[in-house]
Amino acid sequence: MALLEIKDLYASIDGNEILKGVNLKVNKGEIHAIMGPNGSGKSTLASVIAGREEYEVTKGSVLFEGKDLLALAPEERAREGIFLAFQYPVEIPGVSTANFIKASVNEIRKHRGEEPLDAASMMRLMKEKLALVEMDKSFLSRSVNEGFSGGEKKRNEIFQMAVMQPKLAVLDETDSGLDIDALKIVANGVNKLHNEENAFLVITHYQRLLDYIVPDKVHVLLNGRIVKSGGKELALDLEERGYDWIKEELEAGAPQNS
Amino acid sequence: MSKDDKIIQEVAGSEYKYGWVSDLDEDRIAPGLSEETIRFISAKKEEPEWLLEWRLKAYRQWLKMTPPAWQNLDIPPIDFQAISYYAAPKPKKKLESLDEVDPDLLATFEKLGISLEEQKRLTGVAVDAVIDSVSVTTTFKEKLGELGVIFCSMSEAVREHPELVKKYLGRVVPPTDNFYAALNSAVFSDGSFAYIPKGVRCPMELSTYFRINAAGTGQFERTLIVAEEGSYVSYLEGCTAPQRDENQLHAAVVELIAFDDAEIKYSTVQNWYPGDKNGVGGVYNFVTKRGICEGRRSKISWTQVETGSAITWKYPSCILKGDDSIGEFYSVALTRNRQQADTGTKMIHLGKNTRSRIISKGISAGQSQNSYRGLVSINKGAENARNYSQCDSLLLGDRCGAHTFPYLDCSNPTAQIEHEATTSKIGEDVLFYCRQRGMDEEEATALIINGFSREVLKKLPMEFAVEAQKLLAISLEGSVG
Ligand SMILES: Nc1ncnc2c1ncn2[C@@H]1O[C@H](COP(=O)(O)OP(=O)(O)O)[C@@H](O)[C@H]1O
Ligand SMILES: [Mg+2]
CA B200 → CA A212, B227, B264, B322, distances in Å? Predict the structure, then answer.
């Protein structure tokens, strides 16, 4: 059974149809990259997987470990093991990063029938994962993302992912706006967390992230549809040739999978 | 209505958590207010003649006064003759220790998570427990006594320290200050009295938990705190009230006096019964709280977390008389269902180089109305006065209201005054972010609200801050899931 199986998914927002028949299957242990030009629907896909209620699913299905994901509230999806690293993480004034993570870890533990972590264990867990993304522990006492630089916000997402240990992590352009050092830190975080039991859906604009995170599959999302899928070399093609050749291929009726 | 709106509505409409009535024996007089009532109260409390006269004078003034009408509140007419003005639990005998305290009372405290035993053992908080109108138990007396600190009920102070009471009572809030203060002066039942002698730093938080415990009984506390030169005291006032159908009037007066270099910190967590979802019942909380920074370099800080009452009318104020004195007001006011709050502060700058700081956080949910009303007054002689005010409002849902009424009255051109105000709604994107991390909407809302209120909460003493955080979360708890 696939970890995530999306079938013929249509979704719209404010009456505008954005996703127009997405099909995607992700197995445990795999890393999938989703690429596509701005506005093609990548964040929409991520939001629909995470359960953002502004988006209306008009057709199709999403199964997670065989269960109907669309029937679950966003927090239930999170507790089941879905994590979204946001393209634009929000700021929460007055709420320390430590408190925020504590609340979230304990919710997930409760869902699994586990006791809340005691303060010492919680601190140990956070410190260990901070090291992974090379963040200083002073981050823990700062308000969530408030006054963080763009790069710090993205690293904070990866930090939270490392603490939460999701089964499926969706990274929405986590690499955008990062310098090469920060990019390596993010990639390193993903690689350290990656194992046979989890999977990653890495949404990106640029192939450079894929120099560090090696995907099993690369998909091109164009105008709300996955129009081409391939191995990691597809990312290199896209880097070199852009998206126009795919559009041309499409118009010429070429096969969608290479 | 979208799902989110619905949840917000449910959250905002949650029922009062502390709704119970404890079964203490009551000793209560029949409703009605006259000179006779006042004589009865005074006699019951074995008061000296001067105090009876003081009360009667206030009463005669009150008869000529009318309730204030300038606030942004819809107050149903109150029948002052329908209220009983005195209630006391019948003490079996004089209490020597906690063991002798009515077990019902102890159970009541335990429900609130503030058992006296625990507090005595763990936190070193001296608790003067006031149920309805009479102090039932007072702890840590001796320890405070060694330092010369007086901390007792107002009735006891009248008996044991009449010279102090006579000297300071009504000095900051004169009996005729306003309609409700006059009423309080006429019929005040009990309250706390604290006196910190020169140079003494009070080693523990002084704390009184008030409750309204008798159906239909107005409660009229009178609290007076005097901090002599160079002393320091932190005072905590917290309350919850049992659920009932009738409106209950609560008109308290609190007076603070700080002399040279003295500091008084006064913290309140207010959780009177707010009425049900339809606004039926609930406490009318009409309070006059005022402090005077009498001496140079003295400081008074008011910190309040207001979640209860059907109607709140309350403006803890500071008169900054001493040069270089400081006044602070930190407030979180949360209203839901049909609650109405009109609260804020007055900072009256009289002395030179006086400074004041106002941080107000209003949270409105349901169909409630939440108003901040603040006055900053800089008098002619107040050279180099400074004020900073920040008033933030947070709205949950779109049927509630948040209002800000800042008044400025400046008669000295050297003043520096800064005012900032914001109004925001809890953003869908912030809620979604929290939910994506596994929190349900309720928990996320509580977290966001606590964050919004943090600047104020962190001013509270540690144990109180934790309680206040829980209270904010509980106040928003609904029937989700
Ligand atoms: N609230 C909205 N109303 C209408 N169109 C929207 C709304 N939000 C996003 N869109 C449109 O949906 C399309 C896909 O957006 P998005 O999923 O963010 O793309 P990507 O992440 O691939 O850049 C864009 O054309 C965008 O303008
Ligand atoms: Mg995007």
Answer: 65, 9, 12, 20
| pLDDT for residue B101 | 54
Output the DSSP codes for chain A: --SEEEEEEEEEETTEEEEEEEEEEE-TT-EEEEE--TTSSHHHHHHHHHT-TTSEEEEEEEEETTEEGGGS-HHHHHHHTEEEE-SSPPPEEEEEHHHHHHHHHHHHHHHTTPPPPPHHHHHHHHHHHHHHTT--GGGGGSEETTT--HHHHHHHHHHHHHHH--SEEEEESTTTT--HHHHHHHHHHHHHH--TT-EEEEEES-GGGGGTS--SEEEEEETTEEEEEE-THHHHHHHHH-SHHHHHHHHTT--SB-
Chain segment B356-384, per-residue pLDDT in tens: 999 999 999 888 889 999 999 999 999 99
CB count, 10 Å around CB of B238? Answer: 21
Which residue type, as a one-letter code, is found at position B257? I
Of A48-57, B325-334, B345-354, B398-407, the range with the lowest mean pLDDT is: B398-407
pLDDT band at B85 (very low <50, low <70, confident <90, very high): confident
Say yes or no to pLDDT of A228 above 60. Answer: yes
Instruction: Determine contact: A164 vs chain B, CB below 8 A.
Output: yes
Average pLDDT for B72-79: 83
Of all ligands present, the nearest one to the C-alpha of A15 is 1
Three-class DSSP category at B119: helix
- Which positions in chain B touch A159 (Cβ < 8 Å)? none
Any atom of ligand 1 within 6 Å of the Cβ of A39: yes
Q: Verify whether the Cβ–Cβ distance B448 to A95 is below 8 Å.
A: yes
Is B407 in CB contact (< 8 Å) with chain A? Answer: no
Name the pTM for this structure.
0.83
Cβ neighbours of B435 in A, within 8 Å: 51, 73-75, 78
Q: How far apart are CA B342 and CA B340, in angstroms?
A: 7
How many angstroms separate the Cα of B430 from the Cα of each of A87, A92, A108? Answer: 13, 7, 19
Quickly tell me which residue has 């507790």 as its tokens. Answer: A79
Residue B437, chain A, CB below 8 Å: the answer is: yes
Nearest CA of chain B to the CA of A253: how many Å? 39
Find the A258 Cα to ligand 2 centroid distance in Å: 25
CATH fold, domain A4-251, is: Rossmann fold (3.40.50)
Please give the Cα distance from A30 to B211 (Å, whole number): 61
Query: Per-residue pLDDT for B7 more than 50?
Result: no
B468: three-class secondary structure by DSSP: helix
Instruction: Give contacts of A 29-58 with B, CB under 8 A.
Output: 50-54
Look up the ipTM and state it: 0.96
Residues 85-104 on A with a CB inside 8 Å of B are 86, 89-90, 92-95, 99-100, 103-104
* Six-digit token string for A6: 């999306």
Give A50's contacts in chain B (Cβ within 8 Å).
432, 436
Alpha carbons B481 and B472: distance in angstroms, whole number: 20
Cβ contact, residue pair B433, A92, below 8 Å: yes
Does A40 sit in the ligand 1 pocket, CB within 6 Å?
A: yes
Query: What mean pLDDT, rounded, does chain A reach?
Result: 92
